[in-house]
Structures are given as structure tokens and as C-alpha cells.
Design a protein that fits this description.
Helix content is 22%, strand content 30%. It is α+β, with helices and mostly antiparallel strands.
Length: 361
Amino acid sequence: TEPRVAAGKRYIISRRPLPRNPSMNQEWNNFLAQQGASADTLDFGNPTGELADAQTGSIMTPLTDLGLIRASGADAVDFLHNLLTNDVEALPADGANRYGFCTPKGRLLASILMWRDGADLMLSLAADLHEGIFKKLSMYVLRSQVKLSDASGQQVIIGLAGAQAEAALAGFGALPATTMHTTAIDNGRIIRIGDQRYLLVLDAAAAPAAWQKLSTHARPAGLNAWRWLDICSGVPQISAATQEEFIPQMINYELIGGVSFKKGCYPGQEIVARTQYLGKIKRRMYRAHLEGGQPVAGSPIFAPETGDQACGMVVNAAAAPHGGHDVLAVIQTSCADAGRLYLGDRNGPLLTIHPLPYQVS
């Protein structure tokens, strides 16, 4: 599939398989293949049924599109606190939170979920950004007492969602009582990321047995089903296709707890703060549905008001249970208000705006 060039940028608007995490544990890879996972882990052979389970049942998904970085050492907290958009110092021992890593111009290089693992900090981010972000963070270490290590080969992440998610996890240990908190268990940690949604982070060697145990309450589902739940929740993931495209407020990051305006400086902090306090945010992230096309991250969005110039960009996309696709997309607010939005070009499939689970001003 050839890329489309629009407004001086390179966009991909047809589906293209996402690469698996290259540093992921190979035995876990092989195990998932034996369970029927597709090569890109987008599904387990029944994409329609998996979406139905995500909507009304309970699913378990190997989050092979995520990479893991471990930060350890006496200066790990200060080190990351000075680089990321949120308050690392305030992260409690049983806490998890969202963070952004920006360029000096305030553009997001990565969206990160972080939690404490004993004295260490664990960072989860898109696998296609993992290697580059690891190298970039390493450049800042200098004389700090910080050790960064690739944890993707040592630990795996399984997503659990649905009414039976708690029952599926009950045999592993105590569950976090509230969202964005964690509990330590044998060989790993449970993270509650939303209502009836959890992450199970495990040593790779323990993952196959855990998968079999979870299957008594949840059905296997691929990444498409999990991404659809993320879209419904209004939680974006920056990937290689959207790196450096958005400041945090464009993807509603401050609305889902990913930005602190009280902490000290970090790369891009001046622009992020100025946007918050001195001007109206002209682009925001919306949830939308379309019946045609094959949207992927980076696909351009057009409106009559902007002519041949794109007025927005898809952040994340997934097939929807009742057909078509649901997307999270950053769009000029004036165009979103007008309501005539099209994927790919001015004659492309029509997008219909749907509400997010939180208020966007």
C-alpha cells in the first residue's frame, strides 16, 4: 500500500499490519501463536466475536503493541520528574498515572503509563516508539544515578476487561480498590486502569500459565478489541505515525490526568503552560465513527471549511462491533462544530462525532 501525501506530510490511510514488539519474549510470542493469535495479534481468528465480547462480555488481550522500560537507581524519580509532563514525585507506592514526554516545542514524543515497582519505576509506551524513546531518555542520564533497562523481554502485559475481569484476577491476589492504583502479586502486578479494566503485568515465564487460568472467566481477544475499548474511554496512545504531531492538550491529556501544571520545568513545559493559560485550544481530540474507509493512526481528516488542507488527524482507530470504525482524532474545533468531516480527502467517508466519557471544554 502506497502512502498518501497531503499538505506536505506523509499519511497512511489503508490498513497495514503493526509490527510486534521486537524485544518481546519469544516464548510468549510462540505461546500466543499456539493459542491462535494472528501474526500482528490484532485478533485470535474471530474479530467480530471478539468485538462483541469486548462490548458485552469479558476479554483478555496480550498487549504486544506495548514496550516496557525500567528506571532504577537513587535518582530515578528526580530524573523522570524533570522530563515528563506529570508529577513523578507525587506518584504513590501503589499508584499509576499517565505522563507525556515532549520535545522542547511541546510536541509529544510519547504517551506513557507509569507505575512504581518497589524502588523502581516502570514505563509502558507504544512498542514502535520503544527503541527511540529508550535511546533519547538515555541521553539525559549523564551523571545521574539512574539505570534504564529494556524490560519488554522480561515482563509481559495482559489486558482484562468486562464484568468477569475481577473474577478472572481474584486468584492472583488482592485487586486495586480504585482506578490508577496497583497491587503487587507473585511474579508481577495488577493495575486498575478503569471501570472493569485491568492490566496484569507478569514475569514472562509466568504468563502462559496465567493465560490458561484467566481463560476460565475471559475469552481471548486481539489488539483491535482492546483498542476499541481505549477509544470508547477516550484514552489516546501516541505511536510512530503521530509522534511530534500534538501538544498534550490536543489529545485531551490534561483531562485524563496526564499533565500537572504545578510541577517544575520539563521539555516543552513553557508552551504547554502557555497554551493552557493564555489561549483557547483550537484543536481537540474527538471520538468519531465512520462506515467506510480503513482509518489508521496518522490518517488525515478534511472539512469544507479548510479546503484541500487537512483539518485533523486520526490518533487511534479500531473496527467497531456494529460495523465500520471508531476513531480518536484531533480536529480543529471549528470544523468539528460544523460537523462535516471526511477521512482521507474531501470526498472520503463521513465521520460522525460521538460523545467522550468526559467533558471537553
